[in-house]
Structure formats: structure tokens, C-alpha cells
Amino acid sequence: MVSKVQRSNDFQEITFGRRSVKAYDPEVKISREEMTEILSEASRAPSSVNLQPWRFVVIESEEGKAKLAPLARFNQTQVATSAAAIAIFMDMNNKEHLDEIYTKAAELGYMPHDVMSSQLKAIHGYYDQLSNEALRDVNLIDSGLVAMQLMLVARAHGYDTNPIGGYEKDQIAEAFGLDKERYQPVMLVTIGKAAKEGYPSYRLPVETTTVWK
Q: What are phi and psi for residue 155, nearest 5 degrees?
């Protein structure tokens, strides 16, 4: 049985006390192989009917960071010193992959073929009548889940992260060659090794944020 102290230590190690990283060690790089592994593990996050609307742009080159810098002008140090800045988008046409996801699941034995067929029919029908605003709400929640999972996975790999919401969201898709109507921004997550420990922050107690019924 794992002790309460051990559970607490494990939690602190994974969640890193949620300290905001302002600068990374610029000498630290993450290989394409390991970054692929990190993104693959992050993509195990749950999503509505398993449609996985998240899309990643890994900005690791000097050219890419130079392009991102003016779009994240209040977070340029994090961008410049990180091993990479990962731009997370939500694909507003993610239903395009619905048949692939469910057909492959049936092929792998994750669900019977008759269940696959009935679910595909029901999901197609639901998404066909979904408004753009409602779809955006669903995709934003799902993409938020993958963003948090990405940060936890990165920590498990020994890296630090910092989420960034303050950047030019109206420009970033086109800046990196994406259709801005289809690929809508969620957040940036910088990743690397912190050059120094981030600043702690006060968290409201559970008694303030929770109601028991």
C-alpha cells in the first residue's frame, strides 16, 4: 500500500506545484522521437465521442520561434529559451476523421462491427445538426483536456512547461500556414528545462471552491 506521504510526494513531482516558468535553459533540446512520444501520450486524453479535435504545431526551429515571437510579445523569453513552443489548435472539421477512428477501433477489436455501425450513424446525425458555436464549445473543452495532459506527460518525461493564453490568436494559424477558419487556437505550451525555479502562487482552499451536497 502506498503511504499518504508517498502519494503527496508523487503528486508534487508530477504537478510541479504549478509554478510559472519564465525562462528555460536554452541548451536543452528535445529530440523529434521523444517529442513524438510526448504528444502521443498526451493524445490519450479523453474527448467527446473520441473525435480528438486537437492539432499540434511544434515550433522548435529558430525560424519558427522568430515568427512566433511578435505574436507572443509578452512571453518572448519563454518562447526564445524553450526547447519548443507547442501551439494547440482545435480542428473545426474534426468530423472528417470520424469514420477512420471508428473503423480502426473495430478492426483492432475495441468494439464489435455492429456497434461501430450504429455509433457512426448516430454520431454523424448529431454532428450534422450541431451549430458552429456548439461545436466550438465541445472542441475547446476537449482541447483543454489534451493541453493539461500534455503538461503532465512532459513533467513525467522530466521537462517543465508553461501554458500561455496571451498571444495573437487571430494571426497564429495563418502565420504557420493553417486555415484559420478550420484550425482555431486554444493555447501555447512552452516546454524545456527551467533555468530557475518558477514563482509559487496562492491557490484557493477547497473550502472556498467546493460545495458539498
A: -65, -40
Identify the three-state secondary structure at position 53.
Answer: coil
Nearest to 190 by CA among 77, 53, 74, 91: 77
Could you give the CA distance from residue 205 to residue 211 in angstroms, rounded to a whole number?
12
Which residues are bridge partners to 164 per DSSP? 188
Q: Which amino acid is at 170?
A: D
Q: Rounded distance, CA 58 to CA 111, Å?
A: 33
* DSSP letter string, 168-191: -TTTHHHHTT--TTTEEEEEEEEE
Average pLDDT, the chain: 92
Do residues 94 and 55 lie in contact, with contact meaning Cβ atoms separated by under 8 Å? no
pLDDT by residue (tens digit) across 25-47?
999 999 999 999 999 999 999 99
Cut 0.85: pTM above it: yes
